[in-house]
Amino acid sequence: MTLLHRLSPLAAAVLLAACATTAPPAEAPAPAPLPSPPPAATETAPPAAPVALTTPQVREAASTLLEDNLRPGEKVDLDAPDVKQDLWARVRQGFQLEDLDDDWVRKAEAWYAARPDYVERMTTRGSRYLFHILEEVEKRGMPSELALLPFIESAFVTHAVSTAKATGMWQFMPATGRDFDLKQNIFRDDRRDVLASTRAALDYLGRLYKMFGDWHLALAAYNWGPGNVQKAIARNQRAGLPIDYESLRIPDETRYYVPKLQAVKNIVFAPDRFGLSLPPVANHPYFLSVKIERDIDVELAARLAGLSLETFQQFNPQMNKPVILAAATPQVLLPYDQASAFAENLASHNGPMASWTAWVVPKTMSPAEAARRTGMSEASLRDVNKIPPKMLVKAGSTLLVPRGEHVRDDVSERLADSASLNLAPDAPPLRRVSLKAGKADTVAAIAARYKVRAEQVAQWNKVGSSARFKPGQAIVVYTAFTPRAAAPQAQAPARTARLAKAAARPAAKAKGGKGRTVIAAATP
After folding, report:
1. Per the residue annotation, which of 153, 253, 378, 455 is the catalytic one?
2. For the chain, what is the radius of gyration of the CA atoms?
3. Which residues fall within 8 angstroms of residue 69, CB to CB, at 6 or more apart?
4. What is the fold, at CATH topology level, of the domain defined by 9-15+40-45+52-62+88-274?
5. Lowest mean pLDDT among 237-241, 261-265, 394-398, 493-497
6. In contact, 283 and 89? CB cutoff 8 Å
7. Where is the signal peptide (predicted)?
8. What is the domain partition of the chain in residue ranges?
9. pLDDT tens digits, one per residue of 437-485
10. Which pLDDT does position 490 carry in this prediction?
11. SS3 state of residue 3
């Protein structure tokens, strides 16, 4: 059997510093289901099972959609000898790192050996991405051990998220992901993208190796951060100590990180030694990439490929919304058995492709008002855009809304790349409170009285957070809270008369024990 299309071997997804755990990571739950498309979309949806079309014009159109990310134009002969080679053997042939042999390695080996079911699931899942990762590693001349790194980062769970918010198969932190051009916005998170995150992870590892000249130190920096490793090296240099990985004073998490990779390497090299087995992995792409040139609903794309929504999301985990924007995601990944059918069905599809589009909010408004303007229920708008209760949508935010029949243009590249959702508390307007300080008034006391933060009071009055106000000093506070007036006390008749006369004057100010207060309707 021969694939005559230009194909795209596949890939791996998401990682980065600060996500290693003292034990190999637990498996992440399945990705949450995407919101359903608006009702109109279901009326025009194609049949659940894609129809294989054989029209020559359709096949010709479809063939232009199949691309090979690493070997453009190359055909894959599934009967060729090299294709039948076991990919694990190819991985073993590329081992280059100096071996570690210590108690940390023994601990990790014992952990994996005691969990054969976990290892089987992890390696089976990893077999989907291993060919692509190994291709990228070999293209860069790197040790093949690096292709095993997602085993300890995420167990090859493409949508994994750590407690520190590192995301994806390669566990990238948000800032590091942005440093390596992994887009993160309301529509997609490229830290979960198989191809993009693999490229970024290997670029990052290559940079770290150039920085430290040692792969063990580069791996430690990938986990702990390069600045921390540089400080540990400098500390040893000042003390006249060696600066290799095993000699540095580093946290246990990072101390365990490289030994875990060594343990996985040992298991791949000789699984029988640990009573484990590895699934067979063929030496050819598991996935192809297929071009998309128009915005398309995720559910429709899955149907055209003949896949369940969950399976499609496993191949394309970077999508944050129920629509794929062609301007930001010009290709999808599919098992090669489904790629041709998808391309043909996509080329012949005549109905609507996207039932969602992007809308830039013209002014700050409530979700209820936004829902009315876009013709959807408030509950649906909140759900698809992940808007929590008691929040306003600020002007300039981008919302995903139903795409009307009159909308012809897809979402632009600029909006697809820069879209953001900015929220503000849906609270009563703040009032400007002017008062004069009493004898014992401090920033903290004023903050407690008006139920605001001391840092805010300090900022409004250009003083320190621990400052004490001088008696009579003018103070400004912005708040929606009005403190209770003190309970009235018995007063002498003359004093009562004076207060009544003062209250009758238009500009009078009520005097209290904590200074003079005037409340004006204003906002900061």
Report:
1. 153
2. 31
3. 8, 9, 11, 195, 289
4. Lysozyme (1.10.530)
5. 493-497
6. no
7. 1-28
8. 9-15+40-45+52-62+88-274, 287-342, 356-425, 431-520
9. 998 899 999 999 988 889 889 989 999 888 999 999 999 998 876 665 5
10. 46
11. strand
Angle at 513 between CA 509 and CA 516, to 5 degrees: 30
What residue type is assigned to position 243 of the chain? I
CB 10 within 8 A of CB 128: yes
Assigned CATH class of 287-342: alpha beta
| Measured CA angle at 178 (ends 264, 230), to 5 deg | 60
Asked whether residue 33 carries a pLDDT value surpassing 70, the answer given is: no
pLDDT at 27: 55
State how far the Cα of 189 lies from the Cα of 174, in Å rounded to an integer: 10
Q: How far apart are CA 115 and CA 111, in angstroms?
A: 7
153 is catalytic: yes
Token code pair at residue 396: 């300039």
* pTM of the model as a whole: 0.72
Q: Read off the tokens for 348.
A: 């012949």
Q: How many residues can be counted in the chain?
A: 524
Q: Work out the average pLDDT over 292-300.
A: 96
**Integer Cα distance of 385 and 56 in angstroms:** 42
Token pair in block for residue 238:
């000042």
